Amino acid sequence: MIRSLYTASTGMEAQQTNIDTIANNLANVNTSAFKRSRANFHDLLYQNIRAPGQSSSTGTVVPSGIQIGSGSKLSSVDKMFTQGAIQVTNNEMDMMVEGQGFFRAQRDDGTTLYTRDGHFSKDDTGRIVTADGYPVLPEITVPSGADSFHVGHDGIVTVKIAGETQEIGQVQVANFLNPTGLVSTGGNYYVTSRASGEAIVGIPGQNGLGRIAQSQLESSNVNIVEEMVNMITGQRAYEINSKVIQTGDQMLQTTNNMR
Amino acid sequence: MLNGIYTPMSGALAQEKVMDIIANNLANINTVGYKSENVTFKVLEPEPQKYYKDPLPPANYKIDFEKLMPLRGNEINYVEVSGVDRDISQGPAQKTDNPLDLMIEGKGYFSVNTPDGMRYSRDGSLSLNEDGLVSDKFGNPILGEKGVILAREGFQVNARGEVLLDGKIADRIKLVTFADDHKLEKVGNNHYFWSGSDDQIKPAEESRIKQGFLEGSNVNPIKNLTSMIIAHRSYEAYQKSIKNMDSMMEKSANQIGVVRA
């Protein structure tokens, strides 16, 4: 009796995290290059009153045992690294990775940050920086007086100085064996972890890395309909579990009123 | 009289178990690959009571069947949970578009190599580790027929469960079936444990794999909520019955057996 109360509470707790995850996805529906998350659940330990396949007192083998589970638990919240929709911005500094890969940027403390968000601009010295002002790696400085900034599919950046085309650098992308293992740090950035593996840095368009598309941004890969449906199922599952708690409570109440 | 109170009590205890099972089903209503459970009951008949003429048999006791009162079975039936049946029907397909999500269509289980030994699972929400090893959400490798599966250059699985690498078949997801699915033991973490012998494990030839889909929980909320109402009300009824027995005993103790001055 008491157990069903706790079992249902684990269900409510799991669904609460589910809704939290969905809320964050929906809050970032317009965040460029945002990757949606998904909560995964697993069942908890079972109490074996009688294991299946065990012999009964009369010598026969019991066809189905008695196992009573103790609820569900969150097993992971995974990032889904599927491609977001393309948004043409006509801003020459905007870039997008078409396919797999991350841009690299350097934080002030020297940490390498990885991001899919190619909303770049120039700082006061002409360096290409992210929206937060972190320089993009490898550092590319646009000389003053340069115009018609152009980025090729392979990441090569060319500008026109005094009517002459000049190559000033190449944007690189990094990929991971397990991108889901990256740690989100906010600000659309990720840092590596033990689970993600080392960054494999390369030239865009080669070895399975995505190509660079200029003047485009990757929009969020959150699908509103899908999230709404998940929200409905999450909410109802929460409700159903609360009903179990109510019923358990009422059963305890009848027990208390027995005498 | 006193025995009568135990019959509804056994019923109430059985209904408590039902509530526990329903609570677990409903807690796992969004757990991938979870299989719903159902309780079955049985009548528990106690040993027939033997009535001897004397409270203790004499020293030179010899069974004399004629002098023995006929064996009288106990008319009181108790109820007990006899087993928990698993509904192994296919759960609903949920489209996720994630290449690391696999769904088994038909019978069969994934083989998971855990530190505690082989476990089996219907949960196909897979992950990669830092070496590109295909594993479950706890880092335990999911086995192919040739052993562990590495997905360094993307992960592609066709309907037959074959893992494609550069367009060539590199391995096949190891799907297994068992002589009797109901003998699989649930051990949590979406894993099942097989306590039988290894020769009862057979490859699942007819099952297909769907990539980008997950098998949802097959818990039916309507069925479970209805069962919950029934369990709740039966529990109440049993308790009313206990209360009745109590008041009857109270009458016999305080009214029939009253000592008058």
Q: What do these coordinates show?
A:
- The complex is a heterodimer of chains A (259) and B (261).
- Chain A has 259 residues and is an alpha+beta fold.
- Chain A contains 2 helices and 20 strands.
- Chain A has helices at 2-27, 224-256; strands at 37-43, 46-50, 66-69, 72-79, 86-88, 95-98, 103-106, 112-115, 121-122, 128-129, 136-137, 147-151, 156-161, 164-170, 173-175, 183-186, 189-191, 200-202, 211-214, 216-218.
- In chain A, strands 11-7-8-17-16 form a 5-stranded antiparallel beta sheet, with no helix packed on it. Chain A has a 3-stranded antiparallel beta sheet with strand order 12-13-14, with no helix packed on it.
- In chain A, strand 13 and strand 14 form a beta hairpin.
- The longest helix of chain A has 33 residues, at 224-256.
- The mean pLDDT of chain A is 89.
- In chain B, a hairpin with a 2-residue loop joins strand 15 (185-188) and strand 16 (191-193).
- In chain B, strands 15-16-6-5-14-17 form a 6-stranded antiparallel beta sheet, with no helix packed on it. Chain B has a 3-stranded antiparallel beta sheet with strand order 11-12-13, with no helix packed on it.
- The longest helix of chain B is centred in the last third of the chain and has 36 residues, at 221-256.
- In chain B, helix 1 packs antiparallel against helix 2 (221-256).
- Chain B is built from 2 helices and 19 strands.
- Chain B is α+β, with helices and mostly antiparallel strands.
- The model of chain B is unreliable at 69-73 (pLDDT under 50).
- The chains are: A alpha+beta (259), B alpha+beta (261).
- The interface between A and B is large, with 67 and 65 residues.
